[in-house]
């Protein structure tokens, strides 16, 4: 037998191995959380590095699973994000007595995402999707005692079950009209008859649900608010990123014949998503909820990038996701530390934050600026490139719309900054000692936010490996 | 001469400020950096003139062009012409003055000076960019520091003003962005030089010119997008007001000028609208000023009126008027910075900016009052000060436009100088002259740093006012090339 | 043509003085600043006399014609290749004549102020401003470029502003200075536009070129400017009229005169220098400077004529009713300038008809001396009495004999009694008027009579009417209520220091002497000598009239009686109207306070707050409102979420199927 | 030998089933019932797959396999969901969906 299978699957295998290892550790004699956490973070680091070792194109299981440079890169991004999250949630997990379960759930879901990204077949795709969703639902309920947590988990599992039902209906019709499940063959059979189109719409709504595009986004805010910060950041960054990668792969590779129609769908979704996301973000006070809506708005911008269906489009998408990982995780990092140490999660609690915790304040501020797209942070470049890619289509209406919405988004990002720096507060959050690991994670994020934009080779590399319609 | 230094030195200064300990170190570092910048600008001027004297006819000197984002054909392309150079000089002078007047900034001094330096870096970068992307990049770099400066160190309803300013400027830059995309996708390049060489299809120009121009217009306080100016200036701390009115409003004017050069056809098509708005801004700003009671508001509104002259000069699209616009930018920058400096000094002593509550300050603080009066006289265009040169050049230029309506616009804007006299003299008569109140009579005069700042700015004003031919020689060649661009069209028509 | 470059020093010395005193005066040179100023000005006076001698009697004249010599020309600000502001110096009869006038009068004032302003806190500043003014005035005189004229025009304006508001803690002074500056500024707007018009059509701003181009009927510029017309009048008319508007503003011609009486708030020597002798005649000088062009346009000339005549009469009437001596003098100044104006208006460019021009210049010259003398005399009086009101004065002839004599001479001069200076110049004007325009002649004659009436009303009120003793004690009461102009000076002085007497004496001699200068040989429109002769028969009428007026004044005011009040009541409404200056000020106040502020200023300010800014606010608030309206979407019920989800699916499908079709 | 049922009938049944499930999901308050209605929807999809496979593409078994996987995953989903519901019951003392609407707006 040949070993290419090991090579192609190496990221998945590593992850699986890690999961099993954790299981055994769980079964073995209990160790102190610190040691476990350190070990895991180390392992994740190894996993991340190993991901970069070598990438080659290839496919397995006659086309069900395929991999290539860009897919590997995407997986590495996810690995990076997981590492950062796990480092940031150190403070929270240290006192938690089900550390390993948390990692079991999240890593399993990550594994599912890997398969989803590499899927070359609707069945594999579906499996990956479910494998990535269901554990998260359990993870959302990780604060077993908190009412909100269980409510969030309930909402997540129900709505995702519903959405997967819709998705499956779509897949079934697709199967019915094309007679195959493998992407490579489907493309040939796409003739755009109404049923097929309907099936495609159902499929897309499945995606739209996962990336929480309006009007399929309603679960997002509640789930984000209810679940523990670590899970929230996992949901908002990683699962979203994974689905976006898959979406762009499928749209650009598989559904090319329907390009004109999915362009229209994307436009509709974009407009709705940006607007609604902004309008709701305006009036949030809970920080996680606020970030939820802001991330919804971000997705709108991402969709503009995707809609360009060009190499630049895909590149800007991946580039933006990278930046988004850094900036969003920096923000979540601060929030998670604050909520873990003080239990405060409201923006109004952050008034006068700068007086007591200047370092955290700057991290948070830079993150918010990057999310808002203010130079010199990377967010500026990310957003600008997305819009540039979109503008290539010559549809300036949506660009102007997005540009004006950027102003709204500035309002709410800046009002958080205002709360941190300018608002007076008699009882600000007291001075906190942030665990070293989390600090490191935040610094990585900040450096990433600064460097990713200004150093052009990052984008140029991504551009070189990505492809267009 | 490497222009990148203009960005690197502020960067270095900012980093050092972050590392520094205590107000003393911080402000010394800040001042040193600013002075080095000033010297650098001086050397730049020197070698620029040397190049020109050596017969270097290139439009932009000291060009350097590195690819930044290869995939998107985005370059880090820098270079300066006379106009950019005069803007750079203006910036460097104002930065030094601004740091001097905020010498005793106790509250969060580190952050304060850091942001000031950052803001100046944005301005420098903006003026040296020859690539629209970098131009836009630096334009936005300069926005957020303003927000923080006003919001944290400001006075009055500071957060509201800061938010208003940031949002309106961001809206402006959003419009600019759309315009830039339009240019980019129809020329496949952000490079100003290349674009000017190849030109932009007329239809495209007609569609995208309004976005770009109005976008920059917001920065230049073009009516009716000027409402951020009064509140922003009034709430900002002294140095921030100086930077705001002295530098960042110039970003707008400069941008407008570049856009006009890039899209000559559209410029000719829309010039009447530009002129209309500018004239409204001039008259309207002047009359609105007349009704103000707060010194900072007076100066802020008068800035609207004065920046109207910049737009008017640009809109008239002829050599003299554009010269005038550029001179007016420099002149207004210095003058309004001086004005804000004086107001800041008065405010820091009397703790009021309401004209009604002041009076007879000339008795208690002769130096500050003299500075105030000088700023006022410059603002009402007294010969010997820069204001006169600038406004007269704009008038003569715009009068060369034989169209009757344009003549009317010129006359109307000319009428504003009377109104200017009215409000300046009202303010001076109430605040500086007249009987002094007993608690103000004991106040102290300017300190050495304030004096230094004021003298620096006054020197600038006088140099332009007494020897306008200097700056004229500096910018003439650049305006010639601009006219060449605009001329292409006229021939085409 | 020899070199006149040294003339450059005449304005530069005062400038240097200004810089010196302005920077270091207050701190270091406070004591000697007066001497410095006077010394430097003395030098420039000498220089200007040298220049005058050289020009008029050595080499100014080339085969019978005085040349225009451009002594210096430097391009200061280039607008476009041929349109530029040049800093230049032009030497021709009027500029040299003005040099002499300005420097000598200014010198007198400098000397006088040494005593008058002694002990002032801002003594140095005062001299700095004086020097600034002198510099600007000289620059204005020498200007060779019309834009240069405008620049110095503004500068004299601002220095007058600074000097009027010298007592800056007196609100009335501040108000007066503001009024002066703003009114003249308004007039200057016209001047500026006029410059723009001429410059645009003439293709240059150089006065010489402009004259050359606009006086030759065949030149392209002349054709283009007369061809272009606006509201029925040719552009030439517009340009000239607007330029004259500027001149009228500075020279306080009706209806732009309102600032001049208030300007008397400034220190009296300043009034003597700026508001009597020099700055206020700048308008006349401007018209004279551009005269060849004016002479090409009938309408503009007529405007000049009638405005001048109207102002002359108008001011004279008011002067008869005022009680503040400085105001009387102010109105008389206005009236005399009116004389000069219409003299120019009725003149032609050269030849026998050029008489008016020459006469006007002549009158400008003589007027400078006797009017400044009057003001300085009044200054001396005020210095003693600490009041400007006639009723506080009387019988001073014993207390201050020198002032008395000097004042008398000046009165006789202005009244045009031979052989005093005023007589000659006024005769020339009347002759010119008689030949050119009978109506004007009548107005002039009447005005002359009025002039001598009110001047002697003034004279008798100050120096006679009451008896000295009464005044003395009366004057003591006023010491108690002495206003704070110069608080710390001792009250037992006689006529003040010699520095105050000397200028009076010198000027008095001038007022007698300058009339005999053969002006017609020197200063004429076309530079050629003009043969004039005093026609004694012709001059009987005015002289007799003046004498009668003087006698009338004497009978009214020599000693106290109520004849004057009777007459005043006889005139009734007209008298009060005149006393209230015909309500011109009120009209202005109404226009500014009741129309511009409430109907233009406030609405705009309001609109900016509520409409323009309000719109931006509205955007923000509506966004927020919409946001809160939509919050129901996020109901928290998972079933609704699913419902919306399905709704979305349906919506998109419909949309897409619809578009697909 | 009865002639076989046309595909459309089966599709009709499955579609009906799907919407019945959806109706249930939208209307029922009890979480367990809602979960069951989702199972209904999934099953209707299963029917689809099987039917398509049987009628249109009988030569390979993609549809059937897919069905198997769906059933499996539905089971897993149900397991997790029920666990969550139990936990919800612990905290809320009810499994009525209307009671779990703390987070909104």
Shape annotation of chain D: elongated
The CATH C-level name of chain D is Mainly Alpha
Instruction: Classify the secondary structure makeup of chain C into a structural class.
Output: mainly alpha
How would you sum up the major sheet of chain C? 2 strands, antiparallel
Tally of separate helices of chain D: 3
Give the number of domains of chain D: 1
Parts with pLDDT < 50 across at least 5 consecutive residues of chain D? none
What's the CATH topology name of chain D?
Helix Hairpins
Biggest interchain interface, per-side counts: B-C, 55 and 45 residues
Amount of beta strand of chain D: under 5%
Helix/strand order of chain D: HHH
**What multimeric state do the chains show?**
heterotetramer
The end-to-end distance of chain C, rounded to whole angstroms, is 95 Å
Mean pLDDT of chain C: 83
Characterise the protein shown here:
- The complex is a heterotetramer of chains A (469), B (493), C (661) and D (105).
- Chain B has helices at residues 5-19, 22-53, 82-101, 109-128, 132-141, 143-153, 158-187, 192-198, 202-219, 228-235, 238-262, 264-290, 295-316, 319-350, 361-364, 366-379, 386-399, 404-432, 438-441, 448-466, 468-492; strands at 61-69, 74-80.
- Chain B is mainly α.
- Chain B has one domain (5-492).
- In chain B, a hairpin with a 4-residue loop joins strand 1 and strand 2 (74-80).
- In chain B, helix 9 (202-219) runs parallel beside helix 12 (264-290), helix 10 runs antiparallel to helix 11 (238-262) and helix 11 packs antiparallel against helix 14.
- The radius of gyration of chain B is 21 Å and the shape is globular.
- By secondary structure, chain C is mainly α.
- Chain C is 72% helix and 4% strand.
- In chain C, helix 3 (93-116) packs antiparallel against helix 22 (498-513), helix 9 (235-250) packs antiparallel against helix 12 (282-289) and helix 15 (325-345) packs across helix 19.
- Chain D is an all-alpha fold.
- In chain D, helix 1 (7-27) runs antiparallel to helix 2 and helix 2 (31-55) packs antiparallel against helix 3.
- Chains in contact: A-B, A-C, A-D, B-C, C-D.
For this entry, give a set of tags:
heterotetramer; A: 469 residues; mainly alpha; two-stranded antiparallel sheet; 21 helices; 2 strands; globular; B: 493 residues; two-stranded antiparallel ribbon
Task: Summarize the SSE layout with pairings.
The complex is a heterotetramer of chains A (469), B (493), C (661) and D (105).
Chain A: H1 4-8, H2 10-27, H3 33-51, E1 58-60, E2 65-67, H4 69-88, H5 90-94, H6 99-118, H7 122-140, H8 147-178, H9 183-189, H10 194-210, H11 218-226, H12 229-253, H13 259-282, H14 287-307, H15 311-342, H16 353-356, H17 358-372, H18 378-391, H19 396-421, H20 436-454, H21 456-465
Antiparallel strand pairs in A: 1-2
Helix pairs in contact in A: 2-3, 2-6, 3-4, 4-6, 4-12, 4-15, 4-20, 6-7, 6-12, 7-8, 7-12, 8-10, 8-11, 11-12, 11-14, 12-14, 12-15, 13-14, 13-19, 14-15, 14-18, 14-19, 15-17, 15-18, 15-20, 15-21, 17-19, 17-20, 18-20
Chain C: H1 9-25, H2 33-59, E1 61-62, E2 65-66, E3 69-80, E4 83-91, H3 93-116, H4 123-142, H5 146-164, H6 171-202, H7 207-215, H8 220-227, E5 229-230, E6 233-234, H9 235-250, H10 259-262, H11 268-277, H12 282-289, H13 291-294, H14 298-319, H15 325-345, H16 355-385, H17 396-399, H18 401-415, H19 421-436, H20 438-463, H21 468-480, H22 498-513, H23 519-522, H24 536-557, H25 563-571, H26 573-579, H27 584-629, H28 638-660
Antiparallel strand pairs in C: 1-2, 3-4, 5-6
Chain D: H1 7-27, H2 31-55, H3 62-92
Helix pairs in contact in D: 1-2, 2-3
């Amino acid at each position: 037998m040949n070993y290419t299978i090991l090579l192609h699957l190496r990221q998945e295998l590593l992850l699986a191995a890690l999961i099993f290892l954790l299981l055994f550790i769980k079964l073995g004699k209990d160790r102190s959380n610190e040691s476990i956490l350190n070990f895991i973070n180390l392992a994740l680091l190894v996993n991340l590095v190993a991901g970069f070792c070598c990438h080659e194109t290839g496919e397995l299981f006659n086309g069900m699973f395929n991999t290539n440079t860009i897919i590997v890169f995407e997986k590495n991004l996810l690995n990076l994000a997981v590492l950062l999250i796990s480092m940031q949630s150190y403070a929270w997990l240290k006192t938690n007595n089900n550390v390993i379960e948390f990692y079991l759930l999240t890593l399993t879901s990550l594994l599912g995402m890997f398969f989803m990204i590499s899927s070359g077949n609707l069945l594999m795709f579906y499996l990956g999707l479910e494998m990535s969703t269901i554990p998260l639902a359990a993870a959302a309920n990780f604060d077993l005692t908190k009412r909100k947590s269980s409510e969030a988990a309930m909402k997540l599992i129900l709505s995702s079950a519903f959405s997967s039902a819709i998705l499956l209906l779509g897949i079934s019709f697709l199967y019915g009209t094309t007679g195959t499940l493998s992407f490579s063959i489907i493309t040939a059979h796409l003739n755009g008859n109404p049923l097929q189109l309907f099936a495609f719409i159902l499929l897309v709504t499945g995606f739209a649900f996962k990336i929480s595009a309006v009007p399929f986004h309603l679960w997002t805010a509640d789930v984000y608010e209810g679940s523990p910060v670590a899970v929230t950041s996992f949901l908002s960054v990683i699962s979203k990123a994974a689905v976006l990668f898959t979406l762009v792969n499928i749209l650009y590779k598989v559904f090319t014949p329907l390009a004109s129609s999915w362009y229209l769908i994307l436009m509709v979704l974009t407009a709705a998503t940006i607007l609604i996301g902004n309008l709701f973000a305006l009036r949030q006070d809970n920080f996680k909820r606020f970030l939820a809506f802001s991330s919804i708005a971000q997705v709108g911008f991402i969709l503009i990038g995707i809609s360009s269906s060009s190499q630049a489009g895909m590149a800007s998408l991946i580039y933006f996701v990278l930046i988004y990982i850094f900036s969003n995780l920096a923000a979540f990092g601060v929030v998670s530390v604050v909520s873990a140490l003080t239990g405060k999660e409201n923006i109004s609690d952050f008034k006068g934050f700068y007086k007591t915790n200047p370092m955290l304040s700057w991290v948070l501020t830079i993150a918010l600026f990057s999310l808002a797209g203010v130079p010199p942070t990377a967010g500026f470049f990310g957003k600008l490139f997305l819009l540039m890619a979109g503008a290539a289509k010559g549809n300036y209406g949506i660009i102007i719309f997005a540009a004006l919405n950027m102003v709204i988004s500035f309002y709410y990002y800046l009002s958080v900054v205002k709360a941190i720096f300018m608002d007076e507060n008699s009882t600000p959050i007291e001075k906190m000692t942030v665990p070293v690991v989390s600090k490191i994670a935040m610094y990585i994020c900040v450096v990433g936010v600064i460097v990713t934009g200004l150093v052009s080779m990052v984008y140029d590399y991504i551009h070189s490996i990505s492809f267009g319609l | 001469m490497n222009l990148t230094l203009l960005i690197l030195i502020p960067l270095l200064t900012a980093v050092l400020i972050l590392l520094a300990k205590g107000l003393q170190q911080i402000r010394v570092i800040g001042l040193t950096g600013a002075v080095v910048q000033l010297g650098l600008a001086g050397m730049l001027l020197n070698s620029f003139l040397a190049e020109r004297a050596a017969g270097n006819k290139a439009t932009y000197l000291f060009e350097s062009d590195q690819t930044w984002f290869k995939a998107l054909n985005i370059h880090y392309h820098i270079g300066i012409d006379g106009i950019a150079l005069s803007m750079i000089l203006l910036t460097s002078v104002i930065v030094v003055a601004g740091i001097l007047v905020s010498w005793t900034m106790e509250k969060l001094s580190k952050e304060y000076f850091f942001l000031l330096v950052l803001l100046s870096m944005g301005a420098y970068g903006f003026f040296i960019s020859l690539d629209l992307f970098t131009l836009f990049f630096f334009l936005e770099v300069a926005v957020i520091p303003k927000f923080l400066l006003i919001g944290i160190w400001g006075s009055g309803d500071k957060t509201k003003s800061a938010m208003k300013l940031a949002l309106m400027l961001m809206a402006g830059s959003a419009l600019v962005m759309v315009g830039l995309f339009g240019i980019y996708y129809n020329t496949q390049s952000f490079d100003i030089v290349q674009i000017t060489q190849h030109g932009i299809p007329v239809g495209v120009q007609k569609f995208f010119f309004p976005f770009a121009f109005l976008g920059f217009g917001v920065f230049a306080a073009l009516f009716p997008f000027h409402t951020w100016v009064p509140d922003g200036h009034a709430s900002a701390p002294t140095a921030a007001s100086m930077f705001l009115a002295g530098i960042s409003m110039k970003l707008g004017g400069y941008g407008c000028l570049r856009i006009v050069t890039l899209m000559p056809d559209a410029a000719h098509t829309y010039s009447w609208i530009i002129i209309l708005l500018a004239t409204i801004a001039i008259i309207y700003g002047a009359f609105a000023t007349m009704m103000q009671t707060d010194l900072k508001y007076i100066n802020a509104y008068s800035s609207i009126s004065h920046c109207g002259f910049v737009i008017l000069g640009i809109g008239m699209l002829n050599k003299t008027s554009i010269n005038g616009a550029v001179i007016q930018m420099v002149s207004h920058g210095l003058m309004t910075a001086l004005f804000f400096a004086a107001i800041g000094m008065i405010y820091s002593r009397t703790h009021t900016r309401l004209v009604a509550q002041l009076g007879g300050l000339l008795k208690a603080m002769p130096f500050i009052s003299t500075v105030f009066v000088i700023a006022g006289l410059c603002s009402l265009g007294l010969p010997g000060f820069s204001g006169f040169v600038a406004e007269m050049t704009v008038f003569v230029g715009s009068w060369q436009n034989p169209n009757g309506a344009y003549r009317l616009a010129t006359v109307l804007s000319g009428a504003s100088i009377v109104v200017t006299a009215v409000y300046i003299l009202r303010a001076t008569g109430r605040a500086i002259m007249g009987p002094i109140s007993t608690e103000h009579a004991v106040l102290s005069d300017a300190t050495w740093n304030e004096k230094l700042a004021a003298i620096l700015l006054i020197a600038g004003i006088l140099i332009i006012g007494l020897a306008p031919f200097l700056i004229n020689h500096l910018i003439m060649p650049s305006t010639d090339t601009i006219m060449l661009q605009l001329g292409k069209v006229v021939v085409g028509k | 043509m020899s070199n006149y470059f040294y003339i450059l020093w005449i304005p530069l010395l005062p400038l240097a003085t200004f810089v010196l005193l302005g920077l270091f005066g207050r701190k270091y040179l406070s004591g000697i600043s007066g001497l410095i100023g006077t010394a430097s000005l003395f030098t420039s006076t000498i220089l200007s006399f040298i220049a005058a001698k050289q020009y008029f009697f050595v080499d100014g004249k080339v085969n019978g014609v005085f040349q225009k010599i451009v002594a210096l020309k430097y391009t200061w600000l280039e607008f476009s290749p041929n349109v530029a502001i040049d800093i230049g110096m032009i030497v021709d009869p009027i500029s040299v004549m003005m040099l002499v006038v300005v420097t000598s009068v200014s010198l007198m004032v400098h000397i006088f102020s040494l005593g008058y302003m002694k002990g002032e806190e801002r003594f140095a500043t005062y001299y700095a401003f004086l020097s600034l003014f002198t510099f600007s005035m000289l620059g204005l005189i020498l200007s060779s470029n019309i834009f240069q004229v405008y620049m110095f025009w503004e500068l004299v304006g601002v220095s007058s502003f600074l000097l009027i508001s010298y007592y800056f803690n007196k609100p009335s002074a501040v108000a007066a200075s503001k009024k002066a500056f703003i009114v003249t500024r308004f007039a200057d707007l016209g001047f500026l536009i006029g410059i723009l018009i001429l410059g645009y059509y003439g293709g240059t701003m150089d006065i010489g070129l402009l004259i050359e181009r606009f006086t030759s009927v065949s030149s392209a510029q002349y054709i283009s400017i007369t061809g272009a017309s606006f509201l029925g009048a040719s552009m030439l008319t517009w340009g000239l009229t607007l330029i004259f508007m500027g001149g009228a503003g500075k020279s306080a011609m009706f209806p732009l005169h309102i600032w001049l009486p208030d300007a008397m708030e400034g220190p009296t020597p300043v009034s003597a220098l700026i508001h009597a002798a020099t700055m206020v005649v700048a308008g006349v000088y401007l018209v004279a400077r551009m005269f060849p062009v004016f002479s090409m346009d009938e309408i503009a000339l007529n405007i000049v004529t009638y405005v001048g005549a109207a102002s002359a009469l108008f001011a004279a009437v008011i002067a008869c009713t005022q009680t503040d001596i400085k105001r009387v003098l102010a109105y008389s100044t206005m009236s005399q300038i009116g004389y000069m104006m219409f003299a120019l208006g009725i003149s032609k460019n050269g030849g026998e008809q050029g008489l008016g021009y020459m006469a006007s210049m002549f009158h400008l010259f003589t007027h400078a001396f006797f009017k400044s003398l009057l003001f300085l005399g009044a200054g001396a009086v005020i210095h003693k009495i600490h009041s400007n009101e006639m009723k506080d004065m009387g019988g001073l002839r014993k207390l201050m004999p020198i002032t008395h004599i000097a004042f008398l001479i000046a009165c006789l001069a202005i009244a045009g009694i031979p052989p005093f200076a005023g007589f000659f110049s006024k005769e020339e004007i009347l002759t010119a008027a008689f030949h050119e325009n009978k109506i004007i002649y009548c107005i002039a004659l009447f005005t002359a009579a009025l002039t001598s009436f009110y001047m002697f009303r003034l004279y008798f009120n100050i120096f006679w009417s009451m008896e000295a003793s009464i005044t003395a004690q009366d004057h003591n009461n006023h010491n108690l209520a002495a206003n704070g102009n110069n608080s710390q000076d001792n009250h037992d002085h006689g006529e003040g220091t010699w520095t105050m007497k000397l200028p009076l004496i010198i000027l008095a001699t001038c007022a007698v002497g300058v009339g005999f200068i053969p002006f017609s040989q020197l200063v004429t429109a076309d530079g050629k000598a003009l043969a004039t002769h005093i026609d004694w028969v012709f001059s009987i009428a005015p002289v007799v009239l003046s004498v009668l007026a003087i006698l009338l004044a004497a009978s009214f005011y020599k000693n106290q009686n109520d004849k004057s009040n009777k007459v005043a009541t006889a005139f009734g409404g007209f008298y009060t109207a005149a006393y209230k200056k015909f309500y011109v000020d009120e009209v202005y106040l109404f226009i500014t306070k009741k129309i511009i502020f409430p109907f233009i200023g406030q609405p705009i300010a309001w609109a900016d707050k509520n409409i323009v800014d309000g719109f931006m606010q509205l955007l923000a608030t509506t966004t927020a409102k919409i946001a809160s309206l939509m919050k129901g979407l996020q109901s928290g019920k998972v079933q609704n979420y699913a419902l919306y989800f399905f709704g979305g699916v349906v919506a998109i499908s419909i949309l897409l199927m619809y578009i697909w079709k | 030998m009865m002639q076989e049922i046309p595909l459309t009938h089966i599709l009709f049944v499955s579609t009906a089933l799907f919407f019945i499930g959806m109706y249930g999901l939208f209307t029922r308050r009890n979480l367990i019932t809602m979960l069951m209605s989702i199972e209904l929807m999934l099953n209707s999809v299963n029917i689809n797959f099987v039917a398509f496979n049987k009628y249109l593409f009988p030569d390979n078994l993609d549809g059937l396999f897919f069905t198997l996987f769906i059933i499996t995953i539905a089971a897993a989903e149900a397991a997790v969901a029920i666990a969550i519901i139990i936990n919800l019951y612990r905290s809320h003392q009810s499994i009525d969906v209307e009671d779990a609407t703390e987070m909104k707006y």
